[in-house]
Write a structure and sequence with these properties.
The complex is a heterodimer of chains A (218) and B (237). The longest helix of chain A is centred in the first third of the chain and has 33 residues. By secondary structure, chain A is mainly α. Chain A has a single domain, classed as MetI-like fold (Orthogonal Bundle), CATH 1.10.3720.10. Chain A contains nine helices and no strands. The N and C termini of chain A lie far apart (52 Å). Chain A is flat and about 75 Å long. By secondary structure, chain B is mainly α. Chain B is 79% helix and 0% strand. The N and C termini of chain B lie far apart (54 Å). Classes of the chains: A mainly alpha (218), B mainly alpha (237). The interface between A and B is large, with 37 and 41 residues.
Chain lengths: 218, 237
């Protein structure tokens, strides 16, 4: 092997930074969108009405059974057909991530709500709260505490998953590095740098999730 | 929406063969990487649960590194970087003579990533049952290694069959990242059929159904395994 030369990383820092910014955009949009949509799905799955429960349950099961790459391909192919005009790689990837993450957030939120003892909602009902108030003022605040570490953990997993936009040729952090790695023939420096950056960010995130879990258990 | 449905496209040559081949590679990569994950993950998880500090630190470092770098980045490290940083002779052998380089790399990569996750489950399982069972096992006169081998580990492994099933399903889906370096597994084949025929619904639909069936089959087999391994009168937790 030739000698290592990390100057290739510094000279392309702007390009790599743009890649990291795209990864960050994907994380923010898909975690916020995924949590909102996931909350809606969880509400459907917790509903008393079978007609709401079943389709939401089927959606979550199917999405959780297939690889994210296949979901990216699905939306990349399907969205132009649905909307009738071409859609860029970025909007289609963003929609795919939101739809994919929603299934996972749905299960976290559903588990959190179910973890609140039923006596809580009975007591809330006895004080005269309406169902929506009961959910908002009594059940959700307690559920949020229980699910917070899992939500943080899911954001870390999502950040790792954003690297998969490589398959639809979007210039995220990893793809940006791979472009330079093959152009300048410096795979060791580029992939090594990328791995260290991902590692530091994800380790910080999972440590945060772990510490929150410790606090919740106490 | 204007779309010309034709499910028959899946049965035409060569598409049916491509799909079967894709399922075979997905199952093959999953089975082999799962073997690595279970073997390495059990050893690392056990080491992490022990009081021996050097082993515990090394095992913790293994888990944190392999859990906190995205699997696709790990795959590129194994495929593009690893042959460059090992001694020249080994690197040359990997580049020239490694059989099925893409598949082998994917198996190692997914195997070690899953091993880190399995290790955490194994450690959790051991810590769950050890407090209660280890003193009792030692009191019967077993030596510590015997107590682990005959009592703690068999009970701990039975108690984590559920979480291990989830990890196995994650590894199955993760086998799809192999397509980035040229493994012709299920997702890759469905994309190829979609591109060749312009029948994306049918191609991706077939892949989706296949993943659902594979997932159900794995869940079913693991459930049977749990029933088969159940010890009458023993409750893990």
């Amino acid at each position: 092997m030739g000698s290592l030369d990390f100057s290739v990383v510094w000279t392309n820092l702007g390009f790599l930074g743009n890649g990291l910014a795209l990864s960050a955009l994907l994380v923010v949009v898909s975690s916020v969108g995924g949590m909102i949509l996931g909350g809606g799905l969880a509400a459907l799955r917790l509903s008393r009405h079978r007609i709401l429960r079943l389709p939401a349950g089927a959606y979550v099961t199917v999405i959780r059974s297939v690889p994210l790459i296949l979901v990216l391909f699905w939306f990349y192919f399907m969205l132009p057909l649905w909307t009738g005009h071409t859609i860029g790689a970025l909007p289609s990837a963003l929609i795919a991530y939101v739809m994919f993450e929603a299934a996972f957030y749905c299960e976290i939120i559903r588990a959190g709500v179910r973890a609140v003892p039923p006596g809580q909602s009975m007591a809330a009902a006895a004080t005269g709260l309406r169902p929506w108030q009961m959910m908002r003022l009594v059940v959700l605040p307690q559920a949020l505490v229980a699910m917070e570490p899992l939500l943080v953990n899911q954001v870390v997993i999502l950040f790792q998953d954003t690297a998969l936009v490589y398959v639809v040729a979007l210039r995220d952090f990893l793809t940006a590095a791979s472009v330079i790695a093959s152009r300048d023939d410096r795979p060791v420096e580029l992939y090594g740098f990328v791995a260290v950056v991902y590692f530091v960010i994800c380790l910080a995130g999972s440590q945060l999730a772990g510490r929150r879990r410790g606090e919740v258990i106490q | 929406m204007n779309y010309n449905w034709d499910w028959g496209i899946l049965l035409q040559s060569p598409n049916a063969a491509l799909l079967v081949e894709g399922v075979a590679w997905t199952l093959g990569v999953t089975a082999l990487s799962w073997t690595i994950a279970l073997a390495v993950g059990s050893v690392v998880g056990l080491t992490r649960s022990l009081a021996w500090a050097p082993g515990r630190i090394a095992a913790t470092a293994f888990v944190e590194v392999f859990r906190n770098v995205p699997p696709l980045v790990q795959l590129f490290l194994w495929f593009f970087v690893f042959p460059e940083v090992v001694p020249d002779q080994v690197g040359l052998w990997i580049k020239r003579d490694l059989p099925l380089p893409e598949v082998t790399t994917s198996v190692v990569c997914i195997g070690l990533f899953s091993a880190a996750r399995v290790a955490e489950q194994v450690r959790a399982g051991i810590e769950l049952v050890r407090a209660r069972l280890l003193p009792a096992a030692l009191a019967t006169g077993l030596r510590p290694t015997q107590a682990y081998r005959l009592v703690v580990l068999p009970v701990a492994m039975r108690s984590i069959i559920g979480p291990l099933t989830s990890e196995l399903l994650i590894a199955t889906k993760m086998s799809s990242i192999g397509l980035t370096i040229g493994v012709l597994e299920l997702t890759a084949q469905s994309q190829r059929i979609a591109n060749d025929t312009f029948h994306g619904f049918e191609a991706y639909g077939a892949a989706t159904v296949s993943y659902l069936v594979i997932g159900l089959a794995i869940t079913g087999v693991m459930h049977l395994l749990a029933v088969w391994l159940r010890v009458p009168g023993l409750q893990a937790a």
